[in-house]
Amino acid sequence: MRIEYHRTLLADRVRNAAFQAALARLVVKGETTVADIGAGTGFLGFLAAKLGAKRVDLYEAAEVADVARKLLRLNRLPNCRIAHVHSTDVASPERVDVIVCETLGNYPFEENIIATLNDAHARFLKPGGVIIPKSVEQLVCPVTAERLYRELTAWDNVGHDLDFAPAKAMSLNNIYVRWLSPDDLLEGGAAAVRWDKVAFDRRNKTTRAGEAAWRARRPATIYGVALWWNAELAPGIDLSTGPLAPRTHWEQLYLPALSPIAVQAGQTLRVRLRSTTSDEKGTNVTWTLTLSDAAGREVLRQALDLEKGYLP
């Protein structure tokens, strides 16, 4: 068990305040029943209990469930009960009014929250019940700063008359957790667009795919793209991992280009993204960058695949 990971979650005041506000918006004292799925130390479920939830069921498959039990006793919350099990393995769950699930990663779906909430929506939620988060949208923005790309191409400077090109290719077919500043991004991050959205009030596919395009108004050199996400936790209550939002323990993701892309005014840069997630294989992401001239003819294509960044 990595308690340090859970410490970083509880130290994230932006995250905690947003989820507390969402629960406060939805919990009716003495009436609302809540399920905290992927409860970790139990913090979100405990918040619901403190807000007056009638009953709170906490589900946690990892060893941290034992810590949550100790914290439950210490904080004397008799309206909570903890099950040391993954929610999908519960045979006959009691339905609740509100499900809260914070198993979001830097790539939001890497912990398979979509499959978890598909099951929870079908088996745990009462008719008319709600899920926190309500939805998650993914955004993408071209990276114009060279510094991240330069870090990954150190293979070119090994020297000693040695060629490390295959290792360099593996580095570039990878995804990097980084904190980006607006200066690293096209138009200071204002060029970010949505490429995917998941609303948890319905069943969703665990494979996600989408694209985005930018028509250049002026020349620019593109070194890859950055990803982040925005979550609507409840109506009017949002949480973002973007570089322009209040900082959280989450960071952005940098997806490199295979080589810098010189974009001229009037040309169109396009990125196509696809991710697959399963409990058995984890998450894989592919991204394809293309450049088209003013007439729409494709003049450049770079295809990258996270699987190519790992040793077999």
Describe this entry's structure for a reader.
- This protein is α/β, with parallel strands linked by helices and 312 residues long.
- It has two domains: 3-102, Vaccinia Virus protein VP39 (Rossmann fold), CATH 3.40.50; 136-229 and 246-309, Hnrnp arginine n-methyltransferase1.
- The protein contains seven helices and 15 strands.
- The protein has helices spanning 3-10, 13-26, 43-50, 64-75, 113-123, 147-152, 165-172, and strands at residues 33-37, 55-59, 80-83, 96-100, 125-132, 135-142, 176-178, 193-199, 208-215, 220-234, 237-240, 252-263, 268-278, 282-292, 298-305.
- The strands form three sheets. Strands 6, 7, 8, 10, 11 and 12 form a six-stranded antiparallel sheet that branches. A five-stranded parallel sheet has the order 3-2-1-4-5, with helices on both faces. Strands 9-13-14-15 form a four-stranded antiparallel sheet, with no helix packed on it.
- Strand 10 and strand 11 form a beta hairpin.
- It starts with a helix and ends in a 7-residue tail after the last strand.
- The model has no long low-confidence stretch (mean pLDDT 97).
Q: What's the structural blueprint in terms of helices and strands?
A:
Elements lengths: L2 H8 L2 H14 L6 E5 L5 H8 L4 E5 L4 H12 L4 E4 L12 E5 L12 H11 L1 E8 L2 E8 L4 H6 L12 H8 L3 E3 L14 E7 L8 E8 L4 E15 L2 E4 L11 E12 L4 E11 L3 E11 L5 E8 L7
Parallel strand pairs: 1-2, 1-4, 2-3, 4-5
Antiparallel strand pairs: 6-8, 6-10, 7-12, 9-13, 10-11, 10-12, 13-14, 14-15
